[in-house]
Amino acid sequence: MRDVAIETRNLHVHYGNNHVIKGINLKIPPKVVFALMGPSGCGKSTLLRTFNRLIELNPNARVEGSVKILGKEVYSPETDPVELRKEIGMVFQYPNPFPHLTIFENVASGVKLNKLVSSKDELKERVEWALKKAALWDEVKDRLKDYPGGISGGQRQRLVIARALAMRPKILLMDEPTANIDPVGVQKIEELLFELKGEYTIVLVTHSPAQAARVSDYVAFLYLGEIVEVGPTRKVFENPEHELTEKYVTGAFG
Ligand SMILES: Nc1ncnc2c1ncn2[C@@H]1O[C@H](COP(=O)(O)OP(=O)(O)OP(=O)(O)O)[C@@H](O)[C@H]1O
């Protein structure tokens, strides 16, 4: 079962009467960057939020079908969403470190809350490890007691990534993580994805075909709540099977 990290079967999501995910079957292999790309409103964020049950925060959302993560049925009554989310880190479009916590405390917070370490030294090691993994350590190691308001948007986003990595998740869900970041920051995060993918399964939502082409190993093209095409990124970009995919990846619409 380890050749598939995330699997959906006949997955549907409705918001009230609005049917936005329409029978999605997807297999995401482990330890790759898997991009969900498509135009605004096609259902990328909704699909991503079914993976960690964040979708349940919308009282009008209804999920049908199956999602399995690392072999576990996400919507089974036995699955505790809080436990599930410990294995699944999530990064959003707006970098959202806790403004009232220092850089150190931001990375340490989840580790402390979940009692993942047993001493202060271990906590320090874990924070340093996560900041290094997120390629941020060199930039903040002398500022660990500062608040994140003083660092750039790109650095704040890598801080959020460090906070997620400190929990040692197996999966990282990223919803347009570079949408609000300057070009240098975007490049750093894209390089980071490249570094991380050997160890984590990364699902990246992007409305940018160029970004999907640059960073992903596999890509699914969503349109109006359905998967038009899915496969190895090179194949989908260089030799798409569907005319709609070709139009999208060549920028004819978006
Ligand atoms: N909480 C909600 N209640 C009702 N409808 C919603 C809700 N969230 C999203 N939708 C609708 O569901 C559809 C899919 O939205 P979703 O945000 O998943 O798409 P997306 O592809 O991620 O779009 P974007 O790139 O603009 O973020 C859209 O028509 C949207 O208006």
UniProtKB/TrEMBL annotation:
Keywords: ATP-binding, Nucleotide-binding, Transport. Residues 6-249 form the ABC transporter domain. One of its GO terms (biological process) is phosphate ion transmembrane transport. CDD domains: ABC_PstB_phosphate_transporter (cd03260). Coiled coil: none annotated. GO terms for molecular function: ATP binding; ATP hydrolysis activity; phosphate transmembrane transporter activity. InterPro entries: AAA+_ATPase, ABC_transporter-like_ATP-bd, ABC_transporter-like_CS, P-loop_NTPase, PstB-like. It holds the Pfam family ABC_tran. SUPFAM superfamilies: P-loop containing nucleoside triphosphate hydrolases (SSF52540). GO terms for cellular component: membrane. PANTHER family: ABC TRANSPORTER I FAMILY MEMBER 17. This is Phosphate ABC transporter ATP-binding protein.
